[in-house]
Structures are given as C-alpha cells and as structure tokens.
Design a protein that fits this description.
This protein has helices at about 1-25, 30-50, 55-60, 105-115, and strands at about 70-75, 80-85, 120-125, 135-145, 150-159. The protein is an alpha+beta fold. The protein has one domain: Beta-Lactamase. Strands 2-1-5-4-3 form a 5-stranded antiparallel β-sheet, sandwiched between helices. It starts with a helix and ends with a strand. A hairpin with a 4-residue loop joins strand 1 and strand 2 (about 80-85). It is built from 4 helices and 5 strands, in the order αααββαβββ.
Length: about 160
C-alpha cells in the first residue's frame, strides 16, 4: 500500500516536471543551435540599443531575418512589442491567443522565460506568407526593452 502510494506520487511528480523539461529541450533540427545563437545575440543588442534595434531586426535578408527565420519580442504581460514578419501583431495583447491545437503559446513563452531564463516552446503557426499552421519551435530568452522585462525569440518550422 505504501509502495503503491509512493509510486503514484512519483508518477505525479514526473508528470508535472516533464512539460517543464520539454520546454528546455531543443527540437530535432540542424538550425536549433543557430537560432539560439541568433536570439541570444539579439537580446544583447536589444538591451544596449533598445527599440532602435527593431529597424535592423526587421530588415529582410539580414543576419536577423532570412528565409523563414525572424525575430519577435513580447513583454511579460503578453503584448507583442515587435514581430519582423507580422507587424500587424505589434501592440496587441496576445497572452491568451491559442494555436490550432488550443495551446496558449504566448503564455508558454512567458512561463519558459520566467522559470528558466530561456528555452524552447513548440506550437502550431503558419510560415511567413502562408495561412496553414505547421509545427514551429521557438527559442525564447529573457531581455529588457527600455528597462522593461521582455522576451525575444525566433523559431524553426518542422515538417
């Protein structure tokens, strides 16, 4: 009886811990390390230059925006401060937005950064210029924009 209770408790703890570990692991993609490096470097630049860095981050064909890769910045309340590929999302509170599977991925971004400082989040989102959502993994890390806590991220689409 005690053994069964301990086993149930252990399974419960594993069930609670697994989602947290899943956010820290990388997707299976040759671009994962490249994305992490890009986002971490962009976070440093954003802390130095503030929102003025957005002009550089938005430029197509640059180090910051190429192919399907682009940067986004969200404050810790869920308001999109910057999105290089989807500027129509800027200024909007998307904390409770759900992907095609019902996942509140902006909340997941914030939770990952709050708990770990950085990590990976998977969700369904369309490629730039398309409307059909596919699996996307985004790496997010903490940063500051004009002194306010925020997160910056970029992702890779998995097919």
């Amino acid at each position: 009886m005690v053994r069964a209770l301990l086993m149930s408790l252990a399974l419960l703890l594993i069930g609670v811990a697994l989602p947290a570990f899943g956010h820290r692991s990388r997707p299976v993609s040759h671009q994962a390390v490249e994305i992490e490096t890009l986002v971490n470097k962009a976070a440093d630049i954003l802390e130095e230059r503030g929102p003025a860095a957005f002009v550089e981050f938005r430029r197509k064909g640059s180090l910051w925006r190429y192919g399907d890769v682009y940067l986004f910045v969200v404050d810790m309340r869920g308001v999109v401060l910057f999105n290089a590929s989807h500027p129509n999302r800027e200024g909007r509170d998307l904390l409770h937005e759900r992907d095609a599977d019902g996942k509140q991925f902006h909340q997941d971004f914030i939770d990952t950064v709050s708990r770990f400082g950085s990590g990976w989040v998977d969700y369904m989102f369309p490629r730039p210029g398309q409307s059909v959502p596919i699996v996307k993994w985004s790496y997010v890390c903490e940063t500051h924009v004009a002194g306010a806590e925020a997160l910056i991220g970029a992702g890779v689409y998995i097919e």
